Amino acid sequence: MAATEAAVVPSSSLETDTALVPETAGTPAATAATSPATAAAAAVTAAARTGPDARVSKAALATKLLSLSGVFAVHKPKGPTSAELLNRLKEKLLAEAGMPSPEWTKRKKQTLKIGHGGTLDSAARGVLVVGIGRGTKMLTGMLSGSKRYIAIGELGKATDTLDSTGKVTEEKPYDKITQEDIEGILQKFTGNIMQVPPLYSALKKDGQRLSTLMKRGEVVEAKPARPVTVYSLSLQKFQPPFFTLDVECGGGFYIRSLVSDIGKELSSCANVLELTRTKQGPFTLEEHALPEDKWTIDDIAQSLEHCSSLLPAELALKKSKPEESNEQVLSCEYITLSETKGEDDVIKTY
After folding, report:
1. How buried is residue 73: exposed, middle or buried, by Cβ count under 10 Å (0-12/13-18/19+)?
2. 17, 53, 121, 163: which one is catalytic?
3. Computed over its alpha carbons, how large is the radius of gyration of the chain?
4. Cβ neighbours of residue 32 under 8 Å, at least 6 residues apart?
5. I need a labelling partner for 317 at 20 to 30 A (CA). Which of 91, 140, 141, 218 fits?
6. CA 28 to CA 25: how far, in whole Å?
7. Helix residue ranges, H only, the chain
8. What is the pLDDT of residue 9?
9. Is there a contact between 346 and 4 (Cβ–Cβ < 8 Å)?
């Protein structure tokens, strides 16, 4: 979750060349700076009014989809990986817009760029930040920002993955551990500390993820401890063997390692039973994360407009000149940024 250099696919000619924050309605500046997204929305409205049965044309929806640019958040449920969820989002948007289709393959190259910043484990749920269009260039900054989690740990059991999805590797008594014991050690894990990442993680060795090597049964050495930051850490509930933590941390921090280290500090062991990311940067689970039934072109367009005001100035989209487009078929691309510097993956689908 630390900052990483993203390998971003070159922008297409249909990406917006204006900032997402609109000018005041009715002013000359607003009229002159009408964005592609606004123009596309007008096209959709016109199509809806003039169609024989008031249906919105797929071509207008496709134009609007390709004009979207910025950063928003979705609600990731337990089960799918972050990459799988992103692919599901992409497929829903393309299906709604009727893309790709013979109508579009005859046109100049149209590129849909979409990616996420800050991987959530498959067993975790919560806020997943997504960039679309030129918003993919903003994801690197999102990775280094603060994140907040609610984690439920289980004392007395250690697993190879440090969470409930793994195999139990050790069991120790926990019956003498009190709430005061846990609260008394949390200060040791607050502030600027050193942390050893889990073996089951997106970190790589010789170009391959450690988790992949572990699943193959290969011997993997733990990565050295690295500096991380915990801004706040508190115990919300203790009902043995379960304890609930509220954690706000910086990039590169692993909740699984924290819970495991807390278990060791208490002369026992522990693993993560449940994990929810409640906030990433300015995006919160309750206010900003779109559930799957809101993964539509219109809902995302509204979310992009709302979320643009939440971002710091250094992450705001800058104006850029549209690029020349080439005579090629539609390509749909998405970018997945892993949680560590230099560990980024770029996946293309056609």
Report:
1. buried
2. 121
3. 23
4. none
5. 91
6. 9
7. 28-32, 36-50, 58-67, 82-97, 102-105, 139-143, 179-185, 210-215, 255-265, 297-307
8. 33
9. no
Count H helices and E strands in the chain, helices first.
10, 16
The token duo for 131 is 């960039």
Residues 107 and 257 sit within 8 Å (Cβ to Cβ): no
The encoded tokens of residue 142 equal 């999102």
- Which of residues 153 and 56 earns the better pLDDT score? 153
What the block records as the tokens of 83 is 């990459």
How far is it, in rounded angstroms, from Cα 232 to Cα 111?
A: 41
Mean pLDDT of the chain: 76
Q: What's the token pair of residue 150?
A: 């609610």
Interacting residues of 290 by C-beta distance below 8 A, sequence separation 6+: 72, 73, 74, 75, 299, 300, 303
pLDDT tier for residue 58 given thresholds of 50, 70 and 90: confident
Q: What is the mean pLDDT of residues 276-300?
A: 96
Q: How far apart are CA 60 and CA 37, in angstroms?
A: 11
Active site residue 261: no
**Spatial CA neighbour of 66 closest among 137, 6, 134:** 134
**Number of Cβ atoms within 10 Å of the Cβ of 111:** 19
Amino acid identity, position 288: H
Q: At residue 269, what is the residue type?
A: C
Q: Count Cα neighbours of 133 within 13 Å in the Cβ-side half-sphere.
A: 28
Query: What is the tens place of the pLDDT at every residue in 197-212?
Result: 887 666 555 666 655 6
Dist. CA 247–CA 228, nearest whole Å: 13
* Distance between CA atoms of residues 97 and 101, nearest Å: 10
